């Protein structure tokens, strides 16, 4: 019942969708496959501990950078599944057998009910108190800017302004937004995200998983220092990294690609 209470606008949306369209069993299967991930993220102490570990590591990384660098220092963070928790929306999708849609996502974001991840607000305040600037760089659409800004301020994140909050306008590639931060005179000394694409310097944007894994291996010494990654088994750019043109596939073919990507035990 708790999950349902979050979503009166979404419940009305789901009723409308079901009234107009037949059930897509492949979509139901895709959504249902996310159940274990969402249950883990919402209930496991291990997930909370990993969040605290990431934020503690970021504090230490920022303190070290501050001792080694001068000038305007910044920490660039993603929002979704890095600072804030969208698992209630994912749980709603599962319970209502709904795939991702811009309409449903916007209804969730505009409800201004996204909670903070444990330890996120404390980390943002720490960096700010130590003289750093938090830049909140998210691929939420610019059309949700007002709701996102209100939500972050409501949660207690510091210095959330039209300058520090940088959402997606014309591309989901964060490299141009990182460049604007540099052009404004800041040095980003720590990056936080749940997706390798949150670290533009790695150049994983639109790469397949074989290349993404190779890039991660090549930069292994930077993780835990410059790049701080939070766990997200629910979604991410690893999924379109499974095969070229993944997002152009229908849901049945996406299920097939997922199954073909499994590496099973070869019993002898």
The first-to-last residue Cα distance is: 47 Å
Give the biggest beta sheet: 5 strands, parallel
Along the chain, the helix and strand elements come as HHHHHEHHHEHEHEHEH
Unreliably modeled segments = 1-6, 15-19
| Shape annotation | globular
Strand proportion, as a percent range, falls in 5-15%
Q: Give the fraction of residues assigned to helices.
A: 40-55%
The strands making up the biggest β-sheet line up spatially as 3-2-1-4-5
Quaternary organization: single chain
Q: How many DSSP-defined strands? A: 5
Mean pLDDT: 93
The computed structural class is alpha/beta
Radius of gyration: 19 Å
Q: What's the helix count? A: 12
Write the topology of this structure.
Layout: H1 2-5, H2 8-20, H3 25-32, H4 35-43, H5 45-68, E1 72-77, H6 87-96, H7 102-110, H8 120-129, E2 133-141, H9 145-155, E3 165-168, H10 175-183, E4 186-193, H11 209-218, E5 227-229, H12 251-260
Parallel strand pairs: 1-2, 1-4, 2-3, 4-5
Helix pairs in contact: 2-7, 3-12, 4-6, 5-8
Question: Can you give me a brief rundown of this structure?
Answer:
This protein is an alpha/beta fold and 268 residues long. 47% of the residues lie in helices and 11% in strands.
3D structure, described in words:
- By secondary structure, this protein is α/β, with parallel strands linked by helices.
- It is 47% helix and 11% strand.
- The chain has twelve helices and five strands.
- It has a five-stranded parallel beta sheet with strand order 3-2-1-4-5, sandwiched between helices.
- Strand 4, helix 11 and strand 5 form a beta-alpha-beta unit.
- The longest helix has 24 residues, at 45-68.
- The chain is globular, with a radius of gyration of 19 Å.
């Amino acid at each position: 019942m708790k999950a349902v209470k979050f979503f009166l606008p979404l419940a009305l949306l789901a009723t409308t969708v079901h009234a107009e369209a037949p059930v897509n069993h492949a979509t139901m299967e895709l959504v249902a496959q996310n159940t274990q991930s969402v249950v883990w993220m919402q209930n496991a102490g291990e997930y909370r501990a990993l969040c605290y570990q990431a934020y503690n590591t970021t504090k230490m990384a920022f303190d070290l950078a501050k001792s080694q660098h001068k000038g305007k220092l910044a920490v660039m963070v993603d929002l979704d599944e890095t600072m804030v928790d969208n698992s209630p929306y994912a749980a709603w999708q599962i319970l209502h057998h709904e795939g991702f849609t811009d309409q449903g996502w916007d209804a969730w974001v505009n409800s201004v009910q996204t909670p903070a991840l444990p330890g996120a607000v404390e980390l943002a305040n720490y960096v700010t108190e130590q003289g750093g600037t938090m830049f909140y760089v998210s691929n939420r659409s610019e059309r949700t800017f007002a709701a996102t800004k209100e939500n972050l301020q409501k949660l207690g994140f510091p210095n959330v302004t039209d300058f520090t909050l940088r959402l997606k306008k014309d591309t989901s590639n964060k490299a141009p937004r990182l460049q604007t931060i540099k052009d404004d005179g800041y040095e980003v000394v720590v990056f936080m995200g749940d997706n390798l694409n949150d670290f533009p310097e790695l150049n994983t944007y639109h790469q397949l998983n074989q290349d993404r894994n190779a890039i991660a291996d090549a930069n292994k010494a930077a993780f835990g220092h410059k790049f701080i990654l939070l766990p997200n088994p629910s979604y991410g750019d690893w999924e379109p990294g499974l095969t070229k043109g993944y997002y152009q596939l229908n849901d049945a073919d996406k299920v097939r690609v997922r199954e073909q990507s499994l590496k099973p035990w070869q019993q002898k």
